[in-house]
Design goal:
This protein is an alpha/beta fold. The chain has one domain: Rossmann fold. Helix content is 45%, strand content 19%. A four-stranded parallel beta sheet has the order 3-2-1-4. It is globular. It starts with 13 loop residues before the first strand and ends with a helix.
């Protein structure tokens, strides 16, 4: 499905849910995000979800979520600071450790026009193995 085109000057902001399972920093990622959003709307609203993913299957099995929640909170703070420093208005929250659940929760709070995911390539592989991207698309 093609991303919705919001006419610049239409008064309707483009609402983007940004799912970040890794720290968003550096000019390359920021330039890629700006390039993706450029010309689509004169105003963009960004809602960032930082999933609190367990570092291992063992952590997940024993419901050891203190460290993942802390890590996700720090990641979220860094991402929001980076976006705001570049002039992009953004809000966000720590999400569930399961990215599909985190996205669902985010969409209940924020009526997004599209979802953008920032994931490390290794994270992409893990999601692909669990068939999460096709679940998200549905």
């Amino acid at each position: 499905m093609e991303p919705e085109q919001t006419e610049p000057g239409s008064g309707k902001p483009l609402k983007v849910l940004l799912v970040a399972d890794e720290e968003f920093c550096g000019s390359d990622l920021l330039a890629e995000l700006r390039s993706h959003l450029e010309g689509r709307s004169s105003e963009v609203e960004l809602f960032v979800i930082a999933p609190a993913q367990a570092g291992s299957g063992l952590e997940q099995e024993f419901a050891s979520f203190d460290a993942p929640i802390r890590d996700a909170s720090e990641r979220l703070d860094t991402i929001l600071k980076e976006l705001r420093a570049s002039g992009i208005t953004a809000i966000g929250e720590v999400g569930d450790g399961d990215p599909v659940v985190a996205i669902g929760d985010g969409l209940r709070e924020f009526d997004a026009d599209e979802i953008v995911s920032i994931a490390h390539q290794a994270g992409d592989r893990a999601y692909a193995e669990k068939d999460l991207w096709s679940k998200i698309e549905n």
